[in-house]
Design goal:
Helix content: 55-70%
Radius of gyration: 16 Å
Structural class: mainly alpha
Order of helices and strands: HHHHHHH
Largest sheet: none
Distance between the termini: 41 Å
Number of domains: 1
Shape: globular
Number of strands: 0
Mean pLDDT: 83
Strand content: under 5%
């Protein structure tokens, strides 16, 4: 599977474009070094972990995230909110339920990463949820 094919699969996800596709391909070495979405989410800092062992208990945690990837997926989440689709409905539903907007954005970044890796793993383009077609305006 070549870079062009992987890039097409990745950019089929709402909010994800060629720039993010290229970044993910480079970061993962064409999905040879990082093969799981959860692992890439940790690498990009979307799912941070508190560093608390031994003498570091109570100290500030250090951010070791790839800030470039984290920023790109933040921008993708903003773009996905602006366009009609699965993530916009998700965002509106969670904010209406009282969740903090930045918390929802973080979960959306994680969803985007997991969807990107699922598309590459299954060698298929992103399939939009049909619930949008079922709702009548």
């Amino acid at each position: 599977m070549g870079q062009g094919h992987q890039g097409g699969l990745i950019s089929s996800v709402d909010g994800v474009g060629k720039c993010i596709a290229g970044q993910v391909i480079v970061d993962t070495n064409e999905f040879k070094n990082i093969k799981e979405g959860k692992e890439y989410a940790c690498y990009s800092g979307v799912t941070p972990f508190e560093h608390s062992s031994g003498s570091s208990v109570g100290s500030r945690s250090r951010d070791r995230a790839n800030k470039g990837s984290k920023t790109l997926f933040y921008m993708a989440a903003i773009g996905a909110i602006r366009m009609a689709g699965d993530l916009k409905a998700y965002y509106e539903r969670k904010v209406a339920a009282g969740k903090h907007k930045m918390s929802v954005m973080s979960s959306m970044r994680n969803k985007l990463i997991l969807w990107v890796f699922a598309c590459v793993r299954n060698n298929s383009v992103y399939q939009k949820i049909m619930s949008m077609l079922l709702h009548k305006p």
